[in-house]
Amino acid sequence: MGGVRGSRSRSGLAAGVCVLALAASGSAAPAWAAEEESGAPGAASYRPAEDAVAVEGTASTADAPYLEPGGIYTDSIEPGEELYYSVVLDDTGSYFASVVAAPEPGSAVAYGDGIAVQFHSTGGDNCVAEQRSAFGSSVAARPISAWSTRMIAEDRSCQTAGTYLLRVSRDSDEESDQAAWPTEIRVMREPAVAGGQTAAPPESSWLTEVPTPPAGQARVVTGGTGFNDAQPVGEGVWRDDIAPGQTLFYRVPVDWHQQLAVTVELGNAPFAGQDYAYIGDGLLVEVYNPARGEVTGFSRAYTGDPLRVQEVLPPAAYDNRTDAPSTTAGTMRFAGWHYLAVHLKDDVAELTEAGTIGLHLRISLEGEPADGPVYEEDPREAGFGVTEEDRQQADEGKTDEAVAAEQRGGRVALGVGSIGAGAALLLALGLWTLLARRRRAR
């Protein structure tokens, strides 16, 4: 606004700001409307982060491109390819590298097709066991994520500061689609812990059975294409539509010692010309932690009748990292946004004329938030932790774009208010000057 203020009169400035305010308020509605209408039939491709940087991994460790901790990068990987990236790690924080592979929706994949990720030293030592993510029995092309860790702890490898390597590899069956998979790579640094509550709650207090799901009026939302545009949802009932071959992403803020309970219900769909239909693993739900490490997956066959899949997860606790990162408890090691990926198998399209099928999510967070570890730095800046703003955003189902639009509107309103106050002050000063002149004239 400084440039406008210097080039226009006060009256022109006020008019310009009013136009700007109207434009800002008017532009928010189309953006929101477009977001609601984006759930059209068809499976959209994964949407990478807007600020992601393109890199090219190399087969040679000597030429591995550098990844900045906290950054997000895009690349691609061919069948059978093994790519290396370099990253500098310190000797205080713990690091988590995730690689999302996003094959084209509907492309052919096999049971063992997937990606593997592993941290190495530049001397060839393995920092941790290789972690793999594959399509499994669902045999459905969808975004999948594998992660690797470098923890600071006694009796662990790779504890010194320096340059390390991240190795990413892809397995694909000869009968599978041989196209390159786009990948998104993220490196996160969790600050060191200075004290506080790190122990997990006793297992005797954990819920092992899914509690009664929330009931009541559902609120309409539109799931995202991936981790970057995942739709925030809080406790309650949420309504969406899903197309065959589509994967919808949602995110829920889970605080320390809370257990996330998820129920996903798929509505009925008439199967054209079929007396009976059966789609194995027709509906698949996968849960990921804030570092994009897979926590668990659960699925059920679809016959055209309404179905339900549900799960309750272990509580989020810092001490869970003593378990292997491949276990469900071992992945529930952070407070922060946890992600739900809901996939409807593309085979459903061959049996029904329904373009989309109705979907309900019933979300509850069991247990009161507890005090967690005290970090030496702000963990929220690194992508970990839960704030009141996160809870409010999830409870209201507001996307990041909607929150940003509200903030822009607030800044415009503040600017208009400031200008109004300035104009009133100028008017008062003008009247005071006029009266003073009249008094002197007498």
Give an overview of the whole structure.
- It is a single chain.
- It is built from 5 helices and 21 strands.
- The chain is an alpha+beta fold.
- The strands form 5 sheets. The chain has a 5-stranded mixed sheet with strand order 1-2-9-4-7, with no helix packed on it. Strands 11-13-20-15-18 form a 5-stranded mixed sheet, with no helix packed on it. It has a 5-stranded mixed sheet with strand order 12-14-19-16-17.
- The longest helix has 42 residues, at 400-441.
- It starts with a helix and ends with a helix.
- Residues 1-41 have low confidence and may be disordered.
Class by SSE composition: alpha+beta
How many DSSP helices? Answer: 5
* Biggest sheet record: 5 strands, mixed
Mean pLDDT: 87
Helix/strand order:
HHEEEEEEEEEEEEEEEEEEHEEEHH
Report helical residue fraction.
Answer: 10-25%
Distance between the termini: 43 Å
Strand order of the largest sheet: 1-2-9-4-7
Q: Determine the strand fraction and express it as a percent band.
A: 25-35%
Number of strands: 21
CA radius of gyration is 26 Å
Poorly predicted runs of 5 or more residues: 1-41
Shape annotation: globular
Key phrases:
alpha+beta, 21 strands, 20% helix, 32% strand
Outline the secondary-structure elements.
Blueprint: H1 2-7, H2 10-37, E1 53-54, E2 72-77, E3 82-89, E4 94-101, E5 114-121, E6 131-134, E7 144-150, E8 162-171, E9 181-190, E10 193-196, E11 219-220, E12 231-232, E13 236-242, E14 247-254, E15 259-266, E16 279-288, E17 294-302, E18 307-312, H3 328-331, E19 336-344, E20 357-366, E21 373-375, H4 388-396, H5 400-441
